[in-house]
Amino acid sequence: MNNYDHILVAVDESPISYAAAEHALELAKVFHSHVTLLSVIAVDPFTGVDFYKVAPAVTDYFMHAEQNALDRLNELKLNFVRDGIEVTTKVVHGMPPSEGIMQAADESSADLIIMGSHGRKGLQKLMLGSVAQNVLAISPIPVLIVRQ
């Protein structure tokens, strides 16, 4: 079995992200891993967090999205700190989510990416895409996908 020294966890506002973070916490305990909690604020808000839930106007989107991401990351960070896991948080702006995840994985020398999958199908998947599928397709390191 691989030793995962650095785990990158991609999170958004969904409950499945919190489940992915819980998986990361358990693995980090076993491997004594450093963890980076990441949120990507996408160029196109429709491909990242559910835009219409975050802010009522495009001009407010980035301010609200940034604050929501920081709040979410800091909330999750407490769980890792409580269990003695070394953790950092990072927010990436201005790129598609899968690209932001891969950039953060490269910058942090991550050994493993953990993320949730929303399980979109049909037209919803066609319109919104699948960040998890994109990351799986381009990642040179292992990716653990947590499903609902």
What report would you give on this structure?
Belongs to the universal stress protein A family. It holds the Pfam family Usp. Its main location: cytoplasm. Keywords: Cytoplasm. It is found in: Cytoplasm. By secondary structure, this protein is of the alpha/beta class. It has one domain (32-147): 3-Layer(aba) Sandwich (Rossmann fold), CATH 3.40.50. The protein contains six helices and five strands. It has helices at 15-31, 51-54, 58-82, 97-108, 122-128, 131-138, and strands spanning 6-10, 34-41, 87-93, 112-117, 143-147. Strands 3-2-1-4-5 form a five-stranded parallel beta sheet, with helices on both faces. Helix 4 crosses helix 6 (131-138). The chain starts with 5 loop residues before the first strand and ends with a strand.
The CA-CA distance between the termini, in Å, is: 25 Å
Strand content: 15-25%
Largest sheet, described in full? 5 strands, parallel
The assigned CATH architecture is: 3-Layer(aba) Sandwich
CATH secondary-structure class: Alpha Beta
Overall SS class? alpha/beta
Helix content: 40-55%
Q: What is the name of the CATH topology?
A: Rossmann fold
Name the CATH superfamily classification: HUPs
Count of discrete alpha- or pi-helical segments spanning 4 or more residues: 6
In short:
The protein is α/β, with parallel strands linked by helices. It has a single domain, classed as HUPs (Rossmann fold, 3-Layer(aba) Sandwich), CATH 3.40.50.620. The chain has 6 helices and 5 strands.
